[in-house]
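Lab notebook: predicted structure, single chain.

Context: the supervisor wants predicted structures on file for every construct in the current expression panel, including those that have not yet been purified. This is the next one on the list. No modifications to the sequence; it matches the entry in the shared construct table.
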Amino acid sequence: MPDPHVCKRCAESGLTCCSLEPGEEESCFPLSAVEKDKILECQGGGKGAFAQEENSQIFVDNMKKLFPKEKKLIDTLFPEKKFHLRLATGPDGRCKLLGRDGCVLPGEARPYYCRLFPFWVLGRRVSIFTSGRCLAQKEAKTLKALLASLGATEAGVFDLHARLRLAWGLPPKEGTSLVKHAFRRKAG
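Prediction complete. Output recorded below exactly as produced.
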């Protein structure tokens, strides 16, 4: 059964998926233009919500861990010494969009990575990030229970992951090209 208060309880407890250790900002996930625009629509300008971060070696290596079979594409999309946009954090490492009750953004305006966490797609499987920062994960123990607790489905995770990939410039499924996908969408 979904627990609509688990993220609020997690935010109240301290260290969450919405916070980084100060100094870890370069490992934060990127934001696409689509995600930025959704946030701006909700925030009415998004003042202070974004930070520009260099594509450091740590950042690029983390992206390659997320997409291990697409390392060359990651190098093309996020060349070293260029920049990407990310969510801004305060001096304590907490996301500037994290309020007392959890994220201040409505679900559909949150970045895809935020909406996916603690889930990820590896090949044709939904997996769970190992994290000591997710109260729902600590309480649920299994993938099925965690999906239920967060009101998610495997199909929904696959859909969000495909949307994230497109937003970040990757084909929606590993091993496909954007050209093939666009053609199928027009034809279908």
